[in-house]
Amino acid sequence: MRKHIKSKMIIQLVLLSVLTIAMIMLFLTYQTYGNWEFALLLRGKKLLAFVIVGILTSFSTITFQTLTQNHFLTPSILGFDSLYVLIQTVLFFIWGSSHQRDPRLFIINVVLMVFLSVLLFSALLKKEKQDLFLLLMIGMILGTLFKSMSTFLQVMMDPNEYDKLQGKLFASFSNVEVSLLVLVIPIVMLLVILFMKAANKLDVLHLGMDQAINLGINVGRFQKYLLFLISLSVALATALIGPITFLGFIVANVTYQWLETYKHTFLFLAGALLSILFLVSGQFLVEQVFQMNTTLSVVIEFSGGLYFVWKLLKERGGNT
């Protein structure tokens, strides 16, 4: 990489870091009215959730898009969101809402999501038959199946339990359990190290499957390894705060436009910073501007949907 391009990207990352830290300070200190301890305790918990979800979402989406060679796809196409809804519905259906703050249910959620994902791509990505797009299509079909099964169980559920379940199925940063954060942080740190170690191979994979094979990468094994990291990241983020479809899509594509590089070390760092910046800014708007009349997940899904349509029309216009 040329020296001046690398210097430019480092300056961009520093600017992004300064902007993110400034936004975090504003979020933590705005209108605390002297109640520093209470405000920092309440907002600090949310901030920790923003950092964890921001890192997991950006790293997993950028990796998934390099793997699929498509900037429109996100890991949710593998049916993670639908699987989360199904698991929550089954848990509510069997045990009711009284056990929902039990950390063991969080672990069950994560283990089930990762286990089913590994089972799926281990069965479909066998030896020479490394058909990644068959995996994506089956993931979409399974997503529809999971939704149908969830709807079936929800129809038979007690109305009070159903009402509580609906609250659980929307992403929320306000009710994150501190005990879960303590459990998740070491796993997130390990995932960051593993993604960073895979960055150089992802740079090669960015050139295409054939070029990666010619340059000595065992693509089949590397695909399975990356899908495991992606599955664990998405499972942790979804089980922690609930499903958010468009956050990864927004962050990954803005990162590509901001840095204009294929180097995944820089893409990961910028993506994580952008993700945290978006989440903190969005929560600040929800609390201080909209006066809690909406939720952060609604803002993300609405703006993400508009951005998706705009990018789709832009790409289509560029190809005609």
TrEMBL record:
CDD domains attached to this UniProt entry: TM_ABC_iron-siderophores_like (cd06550)
SUPFAM superfamilies assigned: ABC transporter involved in vitamin B12 uptake, BtuC
Any one biological process term the GO annotation gives: siderophore-iron import into cell
Taxonomic superkingdom: Bacteria
Pfam families from the UniProt entry: FecCD
Membrane-spanning parts: 9-27, 47-64, 76-94, 106-125, 132-156, 176-196, 225-252, 264-286
PANTHER family: FERRIC ENTEROBACTIN TRANSPORT SYSTEM PERMEASE PROTEIN, PETROBACTIN IMPORT SYSTEM PERMEASE PROTEIN YCLO
Family: Belongs to the binding-protein-dependent transport system permease family. FecCD subfamily.
Protein name according to UniProt: Iron ABC transporter permease
Organism: Vagococcus carniphilus
